Amino acid sequence: MSKKLIILGAGESGVGSAILGKQKGFEVFVSDFGKINEIYKQVLIHHELDWEEGGHSEEKILPADLVMKSPGIPDTAAIVQRLVGKGVPVISEIEFASRYTDATLVGITGSNGKTTTATLAYEILKQELNVALGGNIGKSFAGLIAENGFENYVLEISSFQLDGTVNFAPNIAVLTNLSPDHLDRYEYDYKKYIASKFKITKNQTEADYFIYDGDDEDILEGLKNHPTKAKKLPFSLTKKVTEGAYLNNKEIIITVNNTQHTMPIATLGLQGQHNTKNAMAASTIATLLKIRKSTIRESLSNFHGVEHRLEKVLKINNVMYINDSKATNVNATFYALDSMEVPTVWIVGGVDKGNDYTSLLPLVNEKVKAIICLGLDNEKIKQSFSNAVDIIVETAGMQEAIKVAYKLAERGDNVLLSPACASFDLFTNYEDRGRQFKEAVRNL
């Protein structure tokens, strides 16, 4: 008798898991509470998979042997509670997929910088290795394994994906940094969010590696409560480390397993302190996987960033429009504002996940000339910054926001979309928000 695998949520991770599950001999049923995207629907039909949309049929779901839950579905959802109550294991796609590969796994998590670090690591590794990039970015891990197994995987992993892991243990784990994010999913308890992030190293052994920001107080504190067996490789901008990466006289120095090499930060394709850290993490991964120094150096100088992350879109009337839609939390927006060198019109707002804007106040005072709110509820933003900025305008959508920005910005200014919030009130996701921004700018 084949075992019943139920997939909750028919997005990228759900459909990838369904295909892999069928390949591995499970009887698969896919259930989505909302409407399934047409592209994914066609994939399910093509693979002759059973599915439903617009609700969960308990009679089909509760007899499950195993459930893969999409990261967007909270543990508090009624159907999830019923399954857990019955003792049915509910896991994430990362956990499910990892059971079907012996490949080398690089797992990258963190509040910010994980997409840039994962993409950069992938760009370096693909020069010399058979490697795929997936997880929370691009293709699902399960889908990649089903499609054609790779020898190495670089996975960007969110806290929601880690929540559903049991035995997942990457050979190399990276924790880029920690700052309060998604607290609405963690009962507004930052410690629970930190515990979730540390699950990336929980099952690692002495043969594995844990790369982390050695300057991040929350990570250093977290290591006391969540000790790891893995070999620790910190990266730091402020202190010398014997193993890992640090900065000395504008050079990155990487020391791993008795190999050392250096790289001047002036040659990095991406500038700024946070990008130096991303480069340190990616180079440490590449060094562990024995990539040639010249390849690492060349890849770092050729890499100019990922879409929706401080992406320069267009200069109009000498005003630069910058798309940082991927900044879905306060810490990411902190980096963005910190990197602004000229007066900035800042577009901010969306679904507030329990944000505290206090840390942004000094930067807003120094750099922001006007704020444009882009969200259905902007009270908190207005309260936080009304004393710092004279002009705060509320807008109903991206087109209007860009038109207002065009009027407010003068020659030499920047217009920055860096929302510090989730996008689900007005947009499908942060990519949709970023694309609408770029489109509206190009239509000016």
From TrEMBL:
Biological or metabolic pathway of the protein: Cell wall biogenesis; peptidoglycan biosynthesis
Residues that bind ATP: G110, S111, N112, G113, K114, T115, T116
Residues annotated as domain Mur ligase C-terminal: 308-421
Protein name from the UniProt record: UDP-N-acetylmuramoylalanine--D-glutamate ligase
Physiological role: Cell wall formation. Catalyzes the addition of glutamate to the nucleotide precursor UDP-N-acetylmuramoyl-L-alanine (UMA).
Subcellular location: Cytoplasm
SUPFAM superfamilies named among the record's database cross-references: MurCD N-terminal domain, MurD-like peptide ligases, catalytic domain, MurD-like peptide ligases, peptide-binding domain
Enzyme Commission identifier(s): 6.3.2.9
Primary location: cytoplasm
PANTHER family: UDP-N-ACETYLMURAMOYLALANINE--D-GLUTAMATE LIGASE
Keywords: ATP-binding, Cell cycle, Cell division, Cell shape, Cell wall biogenesis/degradation, Cytoplasm, Ligase, Nucleotide-binding, Peptidoglycan synthesis
Catalytic activity: UDP-N-acetyl-alpha-D-muramoyl-L-alanine + D-glutamate + ATP = UDP-N-acetyl-alpha-D-muramoyl-L-alanyl-D-glutamate + ADP + phosphate + H(+)
An annotated Gene Ontology molecular function: UDP-N-acetylmuramoylalanine-D-glutamate ligase activity
Family: Belongs to the MurCDEF family.
Residues of the Mur ligase central domain: 108-285
Gene for this chain: murD
Organism: Patiriisocius hiemis
